[in-house]
Amino acid sequence: MRLFEYAEEGHSYVRFSNPTNTVLEKRITSLEGGAAAVSFGSGMAAISSTLLNLAHQGDEIVAVRTLYGGSTTLFTQLFPGYGITTRFVEDENDPESYRKLFTPRTKAVYLESIGNPRINIIDLEMVTSLAHEYGIPVVVDNTFSTPYLLRPFEHGVDLVCYSATKYLSGHGTVIAGIVVEKGGFNWLNGRFPEFEEFYSANEAQIGADTLKREMFTKRLRMQYLTDLGGHMSPQTAFYVLQGLETLSLRMERHVQNAQKLAEALEQHPNVLEVSYPGLESSPYHSLAKKYFKKGPGAMMAIRVRGGKQAALRVLEKVEIFDYMVNIGDAKSLIVHPASSTHFGHTEEELHAAGVYEDTLRLSVGIEDAEDLIADLMQALS
Ligand code: PLP
Fold it and tell me: Taking a C-beta distance cutoff of 8 angstroms, is the pair 8, 207 a contact?
């Protein structure tokens, strides 16, 4: 009975919690330097449940446009039906673009630490200090960075979401998601009546200290994981745990390869543009130096000369890069976002996200850098 009253931690039913997932949640919490975490059956389950825990009918979310296509679809197509409105910022590095969208019903600012697929970097400290002035929490999808390259809590972020399908597991063998809470955000600041109700209903059993430290994840698990049911299977948790054991080695190699490849691509006559913040030509280079001391990830986008047909031809011609929509695998992957990850978006949405007909997105793997360079050079030629 104490388990069902939440008066004691323990495992009553696998959808709610189980020992393997608990080990994973503790390990991620420790890597991030946070207070608590909840694992989910996919990155989208983690993101959607996080946002539903924050925003209810009549509420608003402020989001940037440079997001994974599935997240944008959630905001523009699914949430409106539940009465949740998303207001998109015009310029993600301009404070006024955020400030003018905040209202008393704003429940979160949502962004990605490395945007997909523009591969842009947002000044996290600017956004978090601004949002906190209004008592609004900041949620960051840290999938492209992982805690090895960036620990968003150190820059004021309140909640971190992951598609653990990517680098955290690292081998394209699972679909998985995780949400981590920094802890200490004041959910009783008057902006979150649902959290005030939750606090009053649970203070006696759970205790004020625990609730104040990790109220977001408690409510997420008790209401959204349990009732919507997007839980991660323990076998998946095991695979993610195994992936974490090599995360630092893989990420080190991923970023080394990405830098070498980006520099080589920039020289190719059939490449119009390379978006990679490790390049001095990138408008995000100074933010990359500020936030990504070990390198700004291993995702990049290129625009090729010759339009869509040329881009599709490169896909056909690559031999080491696999044509796959996944990212963050040990193997190198390539995709044409306009016809896959961002399919069905309007031209305006595509351009705002940095997607053009001639854009290819690369997820640079941990193979030999020389082989990767040679593969793309022959395909481009
Ligand atoms: N976030 C980012 C940045 C992604 O690239 C993806 C998937 O590609 C997701 C979230 C969604 O994750 P999942 O496929 O695990 O649901």
Answer: no
Specify the pLDDT at position 109.
Answer: 99
Report the separation in Å between the CA atom of 47 and the middle of ligand 1, taken as the mean of its atom positions: 9
Q: For a substitution probing ligand 1, which of 163, 333, 343, 362 has the most ligand atoms within 8 Å of its CB?
A: 163
Element (H, E) at 209: helix 208-219
Global pTM? 0.96
Would you state the structure tokens that stand for residue 296, as one six-digit string? 């700004």
Which one has a higher pLDDT value, 354 or 285? 285
Q: For residues 143 and 154, what is the distance between their CA atoms, to the nearest angstrom?
A: 16
Cβ of 141 less than 6 Å from ligand 1: yes
Respond yes or no: is residue 94 known to be catalytic.
no
Please answer whether residues 369 and 332 qualify as being in contact, where contact means their C-beta atoms are separated by less than 8 angstroms: no
CA distance linking residue 293 with residue 275, whole number of Å: 18
What confidence category does residue 195 fall into, taking pLDDT thresholds of 50, 70 and 90? very high
- Is 68 near ligand 1, meaning CB less than 6 Å away? yes
Query: Ligand 1 atom 5: the closest Cα is on which residue?
Result: 68
Going by pLDDT thresholds of 50, 70 and 90, the confidence category of residue 129 is: very high
Mean pLDDT throughout 116-136? Answer: 96
